[in-house]
Amino acid sequence: MGVFTTEEIMRTVEMIHKENLDVRTVTLGINLLDCAHHDPHYLQDRIHKKIMEKAKRLVPVCEEVSRRYGIPIVNKRISLSPISQLLEAHDEVAPVSLAKTIDRAAREVNVDFVGGFSALVEKGWTRGARHLIDSLPIILSSTERVCSSVNAASTAAGINVDAVKRLAEAIIETAQLSANHDGFGAAKLVVFANIPADNPFMAGSYLGAGEPECVVNIGVSGPGVVKRALEVQIKSRNMSFTDIAEEIKTTAFRVTRVGELIGREVAERLGVPFGIVDLSLAPTPRVGDSVGEILQVLGIEAIGAPGSTAAIALLNDAVKKGGLFASSSVGGLSGAFIPVSEDAALSEAAGRGDLRLEKLEAMTSVCSVGLDMVAIPGDTDAHTLAAVILDEMSIGVINAKTTACRIIPVPGKQAGEKAVFGGLFGEAYIMPVHRPGASRAFIEFGGRIPAPLRGLKN
Q1: Which domains are delineated in the chain?
Q2: Which tens digit of pLDDT belongs to each residue from 290-310?
Q3: pTM, whole model, 2 decimals?
Q4: Do the strands 274-281 and 335-336 form a parallel or antiparallel pair, or are they unpaired?
């Protein structure tokens, strides 16, 4: 990286103290494939040992770097190789005991979450992937820090409808098993299309093929910074959409520079390679740290009103352009997240009925992820949930972009009631699902929706 100018330093200080700028996560990727073994106890011991060896200094180093630069590092996390690949020689009991071992290791090294209890099933599933998916309800409801992601679709392979249907069932089962926390277990599972292999954000983080043995990926978030920059400029002068895009790009540039500085420092102190900085405007429930509030600054008085999709598209594109100009190591998702429960303005819009599931789906076609932290009625049936997921997967497959679903059917609650998850996960008004049960016959066809023509790139 180049040397920071005095102006950049002063602006960064202001962003930290007044505009909620933080490093949202430092995520240490660890390759576990060398731990594979047919004996489940030996497998668990090797995985525990490797996590302890590689991650024991992660939290202390992050705290040292945070103090040195005065920049908050909110989360410290671990991402692992897809665990399904280590389960091929094991029975259906092995995933649960392995998850508890990983959860214990995460607790011992004091990280917030560990991702990688994952499977890639876009074209079909193996024995290990099936065992992992079948065990997810027990795992996600009985462990504290384990997160799971399943890639059920890709532009190259199409959509595994059978996997989507089983995952919908697993999501409902998981929510029911964690009913005392409004189904929160389901918030630790993401269903993806075109999953990125270097994403540092949970619950979708895993260490993909082609990544180093051990790597530091960093996620920086700054919706409050972008909001404040736009507020100041819009009040002080007449701005066109071109001017607004330029202001977002400039702000994203500054935020990315901060993220890469922190990421490279942490990686150097740990003695591992630096991977990527993911510049994603990931909101928190705090007022002033919201993607929804950015839309309001841009003149969308009711989030979900006509123009909301265009505003998100403008924001997402400008953030990506600013990040790419700031660093050659931008990766992950990088753009704008719209997780409903984690964004106070989005949650309130859902509660008022301004933001409905169908409009949110449209907005996901131009943002960085998809239907994220969306609460739906607890009595939603598996076929309807599978159809919602299938719609989101289709957006990703046809447009060759990452999309995902992190949906929580809240047990015992209906549309208009509130689900409370706490902390960074916030709270959300439960959104109604249009015509539940009306897609059952469609989902029952099963099989795989073939890849689109654009998937044939060779």
Answers
A1: 26-193 (3.20.70.20), 217-449 (3.20.70.20)
A2: 899 999 999 999 999 999 999
A3: 0.93
A4: parallel
